[in-house]
Amino acid sequence: MKEKVSSKSRRSGIKIMSGLIVLIGSLAYAMVFAVVNGTLGFLSAMSITALGAAGIAKALGAGVALSYGWIIGLAIACGVIRGLLRFAEQYLNHFIAFRLLAVLRNKIFIALRRLCPAKLESKQKGSIIAMITADIETLEVFYAHTVSPVCIAVAVSLTVLAVLTFALSPYFALVALLGYLTVGVIMPLISSSKMKTDGVNYRREFSQFNAFYMDSIKGIKDIVLHNAGEKRMNEVGQRSGNLLVHAKRLKNKTAYSQVVTEVCVSFFTVIAAAVGVILVATGKTDIGKAIVGVVIVTGSFGPVIALSALPGNLTQTFAGGDRVLDLIAEKPAVLPVENKKDFDFESVEVKDLCFGYDDTARVLQDVCLHAEKGEIVGITGDSGSGKSTLLKLLLRFWQKESGEIMYGDSDIDEINTSSLLDNVTMVSQTTYLFDDTIEENLRIAKRDATREEIDEACKRASVYEFIQSLPEGYGQKTGSLGENFSAGEKQRIGLARAFLRGSKLILLDEPTSNVDSINEGIILKSLKDGKKDAGIILVSHRESTMAIADRVYRIENGKISEVTNGRQK
Ligand SMILES: Nc1ncnc2c1ncn2[C@@H]1O[C@H](COP(=O)(O)OP(=O)(O)OP(=O)(O)O)[C@@H](O)[C@H]1O
Ligand SMILES: [Mg+2]
Fold first, then answer.
1. How far apart are CA 495 and CA 35, in angstroms?
2. What CATH number does the domain containing 112 carry?
3. 3: pLDDT confidence band, cut at 50, 70 and 90?
4. 442 with 296, same domain?
5. 157 near 184, Cβ under 8 Å?
6. What is the distance in angstroms between the CA of the first residue and the CA of the last residue of the chain?
7. Atom of ligand 1 nearest to the CA of 381
8. In this predicted structure, what is the pLDDT of residue 190?
């Protein structure tokens, strides 16, 4: 399933752009406002030089209708307006940028929440973190520095063309139009096709380098342990050099395209001046209009020049946008069940259950199992035989392929997800502790638990005395990744969480794998004592743990069979 996502063919640029524009939703009004603002800002800035040109033309004796006073007054007014608009533009750009980041992060979180937990197992956590940080940052560039420049360029260019055509001379408009098309359309298309592979290559090298670097930092203990530091460092150096080569290539091409753009703008400025001279010489226009026309054409390239700088960013933005759109569009492995049945756990009957993570290999084949309140059911089997998978299916983390999982008289697919999670809980093989106090980490199972309930759960998990021995007791911080605790301590806190939750069916995946025999004894005794209130399904390799089970199943090659005293029944 994971391959499906990564090998999906890339969307076209247009598709990515339209997909991204739809994403901004309620912020569209602010974007429109920013574009109007930017357009008026450019036009008022251009008006200042145009008015200056009109003043010079008047001084040269051309017939300019405005008095010097008006020319100076209007130029000052345009300057003030330009200043105000500039302020509004900066304000809006930042408003949009930060709001967009928030909106996009929220959308990605909702998508992750929907895909959780099944699809997240198959996606590398690193790539998700990359998506939340780097990809969203590049998308911000797309909205704030790509969409609005394109819109502003179109709006300013059309306005200037209209002014040139109707107030001065259509010949100027023609020169300007050719200039805009060359600088704003043809050049970006050529350079984007030339830089596409370089952009993609650079991005790929960049993310590979980051991944390798992060991997090295995470695994630094093992690197030191195996004296592999020098080799690793050389590889970091080599990859960094590689990245530099790609970065240089991209920068060179960007610089080259900027130079060509500047040359084009100069070329069209010269053409505009030549057209002005011809128009005056042939009596088609007066010197005043010619000067103003040439100045307007020359000064109007700003917005389209901004477009020619886009392609370098755009390929990276599209790659990031593609990944974000992929994630948002990805179908979850299971859809939550709502508005169907609620239930109270009494027993579970699994019949002919088949499941595989992908089409290639079945993990479970015709599995049958029964468990009910008041009993402990054990499951053993070799590593990789499908024990954890079976537990996940009992919680509907994945969709079963065929067969039945009946809770009472309802199949699992007919039971509301919230009711299922209220009745069934699981302690998985690895307990995740949030970077918070122990108490908060326990309360995640039951927000309003009393202190007595928390104490009781911790005692049953044999972790009460350990917590009491900590300087801050329940208020002790766990540290990021729960690094302040040993594997066994974490495991017991995870167990306490499950006991606190008070579910009627508790699924325990190797609950004592990291625990010494004294603590194991305490935990197993409390499981035994507590079984009258709940059903327990216990996965373990350990014979000492399996000894408390009322019945034991063994999974082998995807098939399950009941065993007694280690012998097949
Ligand atoms: N998310 C997943 N996507 C694809 N394959 C998976 C996934 N999770 C597990 N598998 C594969 O399914 C098989 C069963 O895995 P499972 O975790 O259920 O084994 P297990 O019996 O719990 O093993 P262990 O005793 O080592 O915990 C393994 O071959 C494993 O590689
Ligand atoms: Mg397992």
1. 56
2. 1.20.1560.10
3. very low
4. no
5. yes
6. 36
7. 21
8. 86
In a domain, 218, yes or no: yes
CATH of the domain at 358: 3.40.50.300
pLDDT for 145 beyond 80: no
Ligand closest to the CA atom of residue 379? 1
Q: How confident is the model at residue 6 (pLDDT cuts 50, 70, 90)?
A: very low
Cis ω before 117 (30° cut-off from 0): yes
Higher pLDDT, 460 or 23: 460
For 238-277, give one letter per residue: b (16+ CB within 10 A) or e.
ebeeebeebeebbeebbeebbeebeebbeebbebbbebbe
On whether the CB atoms of residues 73 and 49 are closer than 8 A, the answer is no
The amino acid at residue 443 is R
Provide the domain count of the chain: 2
Q: Which atom of ligand 1 is nearest to the CA of 386?
A: 18
**465 has pLDDT over 80:** yes
Query: pTM value?
Result: 0.72
Same domain assignment for residues 196 and 224: yes
Q: Are residues 220 and 369 located together in one domain of the fold?
A: no
Inter-CA distances, 561 with 185, 384, 407, Å: 69, 16, 21
Residues 257 and 230 in one domain: yes
Q: 446 versus 63: which is more confidently predicted?
A: 446
Tell which of 329, 361, 378 closes a domain: 329
DSSP annotation of 340? S
Amino acid identity for residue 138 in this structure: T
On whether both 220 and 352 belong to a single domain, the answer is no
Question: Where among 329, 362, 379 does a domain terminate?
Answer: 329
17 in any annotated domain: yes
Calculate how far, in angstroms, residue 455's C-alpha sits from the geometric centre of ligand 1: 34
| Distance (Å) from CA 561 to ligand 2 centroid | 18
Ligand at minimal distance from the CA of 383 is 1
Domain membership of residue 342 (yes or no) is: no
Residue span of the structural domain in which 396 resides: 347-568
Residues 6 or more apart whose Cβ sits within 8 Å of residue 443: 449, 454, 500
pLDDT tens digits, 507-540: 999 988 888 888 888 888 888 887 888 899 999 9
Give the mean pLDDT of the chain.
87
Decide if pLDDT at 154 tops 90: yes
502 and 382 belong to one structural domain:
yes
Q: Is 341 among the domain residues?
A: no
Answer with the residue of higher pLDDT: 208 or 466. 466
Name which residue sits closest to atom 11 of ligand 1, judged by CA: 384
Does the pLDDT of residue 8 top 60, yes or no?
A: no
